[in-house]
Amino acid sequence: MLAEDARSGFLAWLLHERRASPLTVEAYGQDLSGFLGFITQHIGAEPDLTALATLRAADFRAWLAEQAARGLDNATRARHLSALRSFFRWLARRQGVSNPQLTLLVTPRVRRPLPRALSAGQARAVTEDIGEVSDDAAVQARDAALFTLLYGCGLRIAEALALDVRDAPLPGSEAMLRVTGKGAKQREVPVLPVVRQAIAAWLDHHPRRQPEAPLFVGVRGKRLDPGVAQRTLRTFRRLAGLPEHATPHALRHSFATHLLAAGADLRAIQDLLGHAKLSTTQRYTAVTTERLLEVWHRTHPRG
User: Fold this and answer.
1) Is the pLDDT reported for residue 301 higher than 80?
2) Which of 47, 111, 187, 191 could form a disulfide with 51 if both were Cys (CB 3.0 to 4.6 A apart)?
3) Which residue, among 80, 69, 138, has the nearest Cα to 105 in the 3D structure?
């Protein structure tokens, strides 16, 4: 069997048995095509399964080096290598073809980008003026409540949209909001009075206030799609002249960054954000340090 035929079989397995999305299958197909094209030139012939099984670690490293020479960054090369490893795992299970040399490769180190927060003024503008996007009073109240909640409590957009009416933090209700985050882990976060007031104003317009109904709904009464919220903020940032990284998730970053800048304890912020590891939260300390250096360079007489 030629390697190209095996690639087709692998992609069919991804699509029909693993139920991978068409976009994922397309990305894997392109990554593997690039690898097989390189190997064809590298060994001087179209590879079959025997050729794949006998490739050396140096051959795989030559492929990664060629990608680096073309300017592909570490994140892209790491993704290509991940696709290749998945392909070889499938070959071992389905075709009895394995190549232990692949295990000798080290995945290119990917440096996670620092969280990009908004300034306090920009975040406040989102929560106070997001209603400018719509002429509908109900939509204005909903959007104000949603984005005030995201910034005021540091929620992920999925966490906020998963809330039901019974969960709504209203004036006079319990001080804490119970949130279900990644891995179905629950945490409790305090809710500012301004958030409670915004939620109450939205519920005055809510089309159905049964406890089991979604807290945030679209114009058809179903649970609000995150794409709608993201599109709303994209429109607003153009109107308000906000930076391109002004997204719903940037409000979560802003929540953490502003708390840290005000002297909040790092472990407290970890609990509020629902991070499993403190190292994830520590990324915000780098953001704060970066801003301090920026201010120092801009304002110090000898900067």
Assistant:
1) no
2) 47
3) 80
